[in-house]
Design a protein that fits this description.
It holds the Pfam family MFS_1. The chain is mainly alpha-helical and 435 residues long. Helix content is 80%, strand content 0%.
Length: 435
């Protein structure tokens, strides 16, 4: 009797844990998406030139590029909860400082802590991957991504109302900072990871053994480590993973990221030139696509079961669909063709992003989920740097140049996946069946 009560308590803790992380992800992107649309306007209102505003914006991306893998690996060493709370609180400080920025210098300084420590979503994904069975990982990740996407859709709407008030930008920054402090509190009250290692809701005994802190590189005695020990360990883990045989997986991720970014890079301008579409209508189409992305997140679980929990096949098919959608959009003669292509593109890109993370974690599990997800984010950051450059070059020739180049990138990633199909779909990716 007492044993069954204990199991039910652990299951309740597991459900509460999942719900808390979903709320954390929702609030995280809800707060960030309130700031993003207003930031450039605020910087220019302080007297910055377009070049200065661009440099300040680029600093954030560069910091994310180098800090993603480092912070992810650090979370493998010191533990998810400690690193997640640290990242959230430092980000809260950065957004509060942004709310106090009355000069360009303070505004630039405020972006530094956020650029280095704004990895709460990556650590949350690593935490989820630590605590669920491998066959359940795509479903759980899909739902988490859906919760985050809802926050990203609603944030700009709230920000639009706040900016109409006097001092609206500063109010928005302080509200965002308060949301992050609330998030830190939610993480603090979540059940401890160790309470759920033997919970049947998160996997079998083999999964519990796989989650042994020593296997994942998470050290229980991290508090006794010196700063030098942590730095050396982080550097070792990152270099081992970055120069391992996972290069093909990271290359697939880079190619697919660039292909989708090229598709969206000049979307508003292309719609205006090709179909004389007004910016408001373009905004509605982007919101429609984002909303479908939320639906896609909830469909990943059933799709994973339909595919026999084969992330490789799901990724291959979603990438093929992405290729055809981008290619169709680049040649679309009518607006309804654009709407059709973006409808399916919303599903294929969200499914593909979840599957590539699942494959990274399955193939490179020995490096730790935090390190792998962090390196993956760094790879995506490289794509964000390259995509605008490639888009500008392609746009010199034709308004349809960027999506056409994106289709070529997508095709290249499909070819690479096909060449590596044995490794992707081999025994290392076979997930245990439910007993």
């Amino acid at each position: 009797m007492s044993a069954s009560i204990g199991v039910e308590k652990m299951k309740a803790n597991g459900r509460f844990f999942h719900h808390c992380l979903h709320v954390v992800g929702f609030l995280d992107l809800f707060g960030v998406s309130m700031i993003i649309p207003l930031l450039n306007h605020h910087i220019k209102s302080l007297g910055a030139s377009p070049t200065t505003a661009g440099i300040i914006g680029s600093c954030y991306g560069v910091l994310q590029l180098f800090s993603s893998s480092i912070v992810g690996s650090w979370s493998d060493i010191v533990g998810r909860r400690f690193s997640l709370i640290t990242c959230i609180l430092v980000s809260a400080f950065g957004y509060a400082l942004l709310g106090l920025s009355t000069t360009i210098f303070i505004c630039a300084i405020a972006r530094i802590p956020v650029g280095i420590f704004k990895h709460s979503l990556s650590i949350s994904k690593a935490l989820l991957s630590d605590l669920v069975a491998e066959k359940e990982r795509p479903r759980v990740m899909g739902r988490f991504n859906a919760a985050c996407s809802i926050g990203f859709i609603l944030g700009p709407v709230v920000a639009g109302y706040l900016t109409e008030l006097q001092g609206g930008f500063y109010l928005t920054c302080f509200l965002c900072s308060a949301i992050f402090v609330l998030n830190a509190g939610l993480v603090w009250i979540m059940p401890r990871n160790e309470e759920m290692f033997h919970n049947g809701n998160f996997g079998n005994e083999k999964k519990a053994n796989d989650l042994n802190p020593e296997n994942e590189g998470i050290k229980k005695n991290h508090l006794t480590w010196t700063l030098r020990d942590q730095v050396v360990s982080v550097f070792k883990k990152v270099t081992e993973a970055a120069f391992s045989d996972l290069w093909d997986i990271f290359l697939v991720r880079l190619l697919m990221a660039i292909s989708v970014m090229l598709c969206y890079s000049n979307f508003a301008l292309a719609m205006e030139e090709r179909f004389h579409m007004k910016p408001r209508t373009t905004g509605y189409l982007i919101s429609y696509s984002s909303s479908l992305g939320v639906v896609a997140g909830f469909l990943i679980g059933p799709l994973s079961k339909l595919y026999g929990h084969s992330s490789y096949r799901m990724l291959m098919h979603s990438s093929i669909l992405t290729f055809f959608c981008i290619f169709l959009y680049s040649l679309a003669p009518k607006i309804w063709v654009v709407v059709l292509s973006f409808t399916f593109l919303a599903f294929s890109t969200n499914i593909g992003r979840t599957c590539i993370v699942d494959i990274e974690l399955a193939v490179g599990k020995q490096y730790g989920s935090g390190t792998l997800i962090g390196i993956g984010q760094s790879v995506s950051s490289v794509g964000r740097i390259l995509a605008p450059l490639l888009s500008g070059i392609a746009q010199e020739y034709n308004a349809c140049g960027p999506p056409l180049l994106g289709a070529i990138m997508a095709f290249a990633s499909i070819y690479l996946m096909y060449k590596c199909r044995i490794r992707y779909s081999g025994p290392s990716l076979q997930k245990p069946k439910s007993e």
